[in-house]
Design brief:
Number of domains: 2
Number of helices: 6
Largest sheet: none
Strand content: under 5%
Oligomer: single chain
Helix content: 40-55%
Distance between the termini: 29 Å
Structural class: mainly alpha
Radius of gyration: 22 Å
Shape: globular
């Protein structure tokens, strides 16, 4: 294939026998997906380089401030970090870890803290933590 070939030309170069063989077709598609995913692992929300700053403790806030602070902490925990790089963003990673622990403690020790207005922030944060994009790992380096 020449260097002037368009970017999806590799899939057009599949022979007729490969098109019939379902296994080959699946493995070709899988390889193409893996190549695409190499550059797609974005860890910060919206690619921001902002550093996390500690928020006040929930237990120290007044009851009127607690719900707003609870939602702010949930939003703060929506920022994802690359834990494969153990030296980058150490301060922000520690702030997030402490915030997640504080949220768990707050929810498990207080009644009525999960109110309807916080549902969307809770679902967003949990889904981001649960469905973290996979990082492509080159099998030859394992």
């Amino acid at each position: 294939m020449s260097s002037s070939s368009p970017p999806g030309a590799a899939s057009a170069a599949i022979s007729a026998s490969e098109k019939v063989d379902g296994f080959t077709r699946k493995s070709v598609r899988k390889a193409q997906r893996q190549k695409r995913s190499q550059g797609s692992s974005q860890f910060r929300s919206q690619g921001s380089q902002a550093e996390l700053h500690p928020l006040p403790q929930l237990k120290d806030a007044t009851s009127n401030e607690q719900q707003e602070l609870f939602c702010q902490k949930l939003q703060q925990c929506c920022i994802l970090f690359d834990f494969m790089d153990s030296v980058s963003d150490l301060k922000s990673k520690e702030i997030k870890r402490a915030t997640l622990n504080e949220l768990v403690e707050y929810v498990s020790t207080n009644r009525g803290v999960i109110v309807e207005s916080a549902y969307s922030d809770i679902v967003k944060m949990v889904s981001l933590q649960t469905y973290v994009p996979q990082i492509y790992i080159n099998p030859s380096k394992i």
